[in-house]
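Good morning,

Attaching, inline, the backbone tokens for the sequence recovery test we're adding to the shared suite. The designed sequence is right after.
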């Protein structure tokens, strides 16, 4: 599974929320998106090791 697909979904979820740093849902989604964006290589390695063929979600 490619990290770009995961990042695109995280970003979609983040944009569906009203930008409100005091809202825990927006805060969490935003900062997870930022962190994963900065650590793409590490997260891709995690996905490669933990998501086996056939386990990927459907679009």
């Amino acid at each position: 599974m490619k990290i770009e697909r995961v990042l695109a979904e995280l970003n979609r979820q983040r944009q569906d929320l009203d930008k409100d740093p005091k809202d825990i849902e927006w805060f969490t989604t935003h900062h997870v998106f930022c962190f994963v964006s900065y650590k793409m290589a590490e997260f891709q390695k995690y996905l490669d090791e933990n998501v086996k063929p056939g386990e990927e979600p459907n679009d």
